[in-house]
Amino acid sequence: MPEFLSRQRWWITRVLLLPLHLFVFAIITFLLLRLVPGDPVASVLGPNYTQAAYLTMQRALGLDGSVWSQLGRYIVEILHLDFGSSIQTGRAVMSEMGTRLPGTLELAVQGLFFTVLLSLVLSYVAVFHPKTVLARIVLVYSRAAGALPEFVLAVWALFVFFTVLHVAPAPLGRLSTDLPTQTVITGFPFLDTLIQGYTAGAISMAAHLVLPIAVMAIASSAVVIKVLVSSLQGAIQDPATAFRITTGSGRRATVLSVYRRAAPAVVTLVGQMFGYLVGGTIVLESLFGFAGLGSYAVKAVLSTDYPAIQGFLLVVAGITLIVYMIVDLAVMTVDPRRRPGSVGSN
User: Fold this and answer.
1) CA distances (Å), 88 to each of 41, 99, 125, in order?
2) The pLDDT of residue 306
3) CA–CA dist 73, 64 (Å, integer)
4) Could you tell me if 189 and 174 are in contact, meaning their C-beta atoms sit under 8 angstroms apart?
5) What Cα–Cα distance (Å) separates residue 328 from each residue in 29, 67, 231, 318, 344?
6) Burial of 52 by CB count in 10 Å (0-12 exposed, 13-18 middle, 19+ buried)?
7) CB–CB of 325/33 below 8 Å?
8) Coil, strand, or helix at residue 92?
9) How far apart are CA 62 and CA 307, in angstroms?
10) Alpha-carbon span 328 to 122, nearest angstrom
């Protein structure tokens, strides 16, 4: 048994550390929020309140006692998966997050999918057809990685395609206002329209998703292309590629081999990018009128809604850490040399 645990330590350690990381993040978030100016109790009561009413509301919101006693209650609550109730709405934060989270995750996954697809196509052009005009444009574009923030591209896209050209739907949600809302099955809006065969809804939702997904793909693909082109060029110069060519391996097999050897660095980057895209959807949801975690987080911040802010940050951190862990384990599974203690590992 000890020998088995020793061999599997490379993934067991990472899985066991995940709850600890979330626990530390929850404590840090709680303490930092208490430093933010604003009084949520006064925000709920309004300007005209008595001291007795203030103390009663403070106790009802769980904000009475010292910071450390509040922290103790908060830790007990999150261990029971209870994020408390929103100060503004009075509803359970976990319930509200469960309603809004699927739409945000769906948008982030769609953005990541098209980011990867665009990066694969353009990197192929840049590396395997380097003398074309498109290849030169791709290389220039990749060098500008991160130069165009998502919100800038989103505002520009809305102005051009909605305000000027009138080819994009109004940024008032995922679905046209004249169509009935789709039945909730999985909670993922676009997927639900497909499952129930709601054709008109699926077409309308796809039209509303074009601009935000395009913005995410254009803003994020530059850095992926930059890393992928560099990795592909290194893989092409690898002796394994020369061996395949000299032994008469077909072009398709050779290209796939080059991409496979270039994959680890890109897989790691894409996994890290998912957390960035989840954060980026917050801005995009606000700009395009999507009801997701974005609008929920903005309202929570404006009203100093501690439970809602804490729940939002903890859920986003949890999703990001889980994705990072999965990517880390996937890379070490594909390439065992990257496991701690393996020959050639850093």
Assistant:
1) 10, 17, 52
2) 82
3) 11
4) yes
5) 25, 36, 18, 15, 17
6) exposed
7) no
8) strand
9) 10
10) 26
Write down the pLDDT at residue 316.
Answer: 83
Distances (CA, A) of 188 to 62, 109, 125, 278: 33, 11, 34, 15
**Is the torsion defined by CA of 157, 161, 165, 171 positive or negative?**
negative
* pLDDT for res 195: 92
Find the mean pLDDT for residues 307-330: 83
Task: Write the CA distances from 146 to 120, 182, 218, 222, 223, integer angstroms.
Answer: 18, 36, 10, 7, 7
* Tokens, residue 75: 């830790």
Q: What is the mean pLDDT of the segment spanning 149-165?
A: 89
Of the chain, the end-to-end C-alpha distance in Å amounts to 27
Confidence label for 190 from pLDDT (cuts 50, 70 and 90):
very high
With 0.85 as the threshold, say if the pTM is over it: no
The Cα–Cα gap between 97 and 295 comes to 11
Amino acid found at 343: V
Res. 344: pLDDT tops 60: no
Residue in this structure with the two tokens 């444009």, named with its chain if needed = 137
User: Rounded distance, CA 9 to CA 7, Å?
Assistant: 6
